[in-house]
Design brief:
Number of strands of chain B: 3
Strand order of the largest sheet of chain B: 1-2-3
Radius of gyration of chain A: 17 Å
Strand content of chain B: 5-15%
Oligomer: heterodimer
Order of helices and strands of chain B: HHEEEHHHHHHHH
Helix content of chain B: 55-70%
Largest sheet of chain B: 3 strands, antiparallel
Number of helices of chain B: 10
Order of helices and strands of chain A: HHHHHHH
Helix content of chain A: over 70%
Strand content of chain A: under 5%
Chain lengths: 155, 253
């Protein structure tokens, strides 16, 4: 097996791009969100498989980075953050463990099923934590928040 | 500033909320946007309550009268461009309010905007995406082509069955069954190496990963009702895919 990093990058790029098309992301931002998704996945790969950290940590940091890119793009393109964040996190989504969980449940291997279920929920939680921490930080430190301390209706 | 009838303002708020909610905006974004629109028209005591299937908006006009409007939602899809357009509109309104009739015309334009890509382009894109996923899930180059074909055709079948029946549970089950069958055929005839990796890659086009993640975000933001509702939907989808795949897997045991 000699899968180089470049093919990984292209695969993640293609995955994000395809989901961007399905979710009907505005055309001029498709490439931008694909790029952030691919970079996020490379960071996840590096942390989780090269440095052998926990999947939770790798996914959390990668999701934080994707969210950071998305916030920057959102300011640059003047669009809401989810336009960039939702396609961007697609390569990180725990599709493999969700599939293994369903398969184990249906085949009756409850032990494996709960193991994979834990993994699925931990990874989803990590993605959510990464996104939430980033948006919290941006809300605290953005210029507009200092200029006009108007309380938002909701988080 | 000119005063408009409260009922008209409520109408445009609810219409904007409908467009956002129909196209996959998070519930907190819908609540925030409606609050801002209502606020920009100088209404007071604004209360918005949004769950993925309904929307309630209560405001008090300057005469002290309470007005409420309720909207029941049926179908949801994901179209982020429309969410972005409504967001722009609300920003525009907070700078300078427009008469409600003009806002309604703008919302109609947003609602009638077609998708950027037609069905074939969409399914081709998702096919390429599914072609990339086997690499990300630890497969080899040989798994890419079968996953690409199975993923693209599976998503196409999902869209067609969903249009026919309007029961997404059934459509996901059929599409997952079809994907499993294709993957099994491919590996039987020597195209592709690992059955599991091919199925995972192809089924990613249906997996509710986004719903799971969004539900966690809602739960963390304190929107317990929406979080639990979206999570239930995601679990139902996961179950449908599991049943579809498991039916195929019984063939090889």
């Amino acid at each position: 097996m000699d899968l180089t990093l470049i093919t990984y990058f292209i695969a993640a790029l293609a995955g994000t791009f395809g989901f961007g098309v399905i979710y009907n992301v505005p055309t001029r931002t498709l490439v931008a969100s694909s790029f952030s998704g691919a970079v996020g996945w490379m960071v996840y790969y590096f942390l989780a498989f090269e440095l052998n950290l926990d999947l939770f940590v790798g996914v959390g940091v990668a999701a934080f980075l994707v969210a950071f890119f998305s916030q920057w793009y959102a300011r640059h393109f003047r669009m809401p953050v989810i336009v960039f964040a939702i396609p961007g996190i697609i390569p990180l989504v725990p599709g493999g463990s969700a599939y293994n969980m369903m398969r184990a449940f249906v085949e009756g291997n409850s032990d494996f099923a709960f193991m994979y279920a834990t993994e699925t929920f931990l990874i989803s939680g990590a993605i959510a934590v990464g996104l939430s921490v980033n948006s919290g930080l941006f809300q605290v430190f953005s210029n507009r928040a200092f200029a006009k301390r108007e309380k938002r209706y909701l988080p | 500033m000119q005063n408009y009838p409260v009922a008209d303002i409520l109408d445009i708020c609810v219409e904007a909320g409908r467009v956002m909610l129909e196209n996959g905006a998070e519930t907190y974004r819908v609540e925030d946007t409606l609050y801002r629109i209502a606020k920009s028209y100088n209404l007071i005591y604004i209360n918005v309550f949004v769950v993925p299937t309904a929307l309630i908006l209560t405001v008090q006009g300057e005469d002290g009268q309470d007005h409420t409007e309720l909207l029941r939602m049926a179908d949801r899809q994901t179209n982020l461009e429309k969410v972005s357009m409504v967001n722009d509109l609300s920003r525009q309104l907070s700078r300078k309010t427009l008469p409600p009739s003009k806002v309604r015309a703008k919302l109609k334009i947003i609602k009638d905007t077609p998708r950027n890509f037609n069905r074939w382009q969409r399914n081709l894109a998702i096919a390429f995406a599914c072609g990339g996923f086997p690499l990300l899930f630890g497969g080899t180059y040989g798994d890419m082509l079968p996953s690409m074909i199975a993923g693209g055709l599976g998503h196409l079948l999902y869209e067609i069955v969903n249009d026919w029946t309007n029961v997404s549970f059934f459509a996901e089950m059929v599409a997952a069954f079809f994907i499993g069958l294709l993957a099994l055929l491919f590996t039987t005839f020597g195209l592709g190496v690992d059955l599991n990796v091919i199925i995972i890659g192809a089924v990613m086009s249906l997996v509710p990963g986004m719903a799971i993640t969004n539900s966690f975000r809602d739960l963390m933001a304190g929107h317990l009702l929406s979080g639990v509702a979206v999570l239930a939907k995601a679990m139902l989808t996961a179950g449908a895919i599991g049943i579809g795949i498991a039916t195929v897997l019984t063939f090889i045991q």
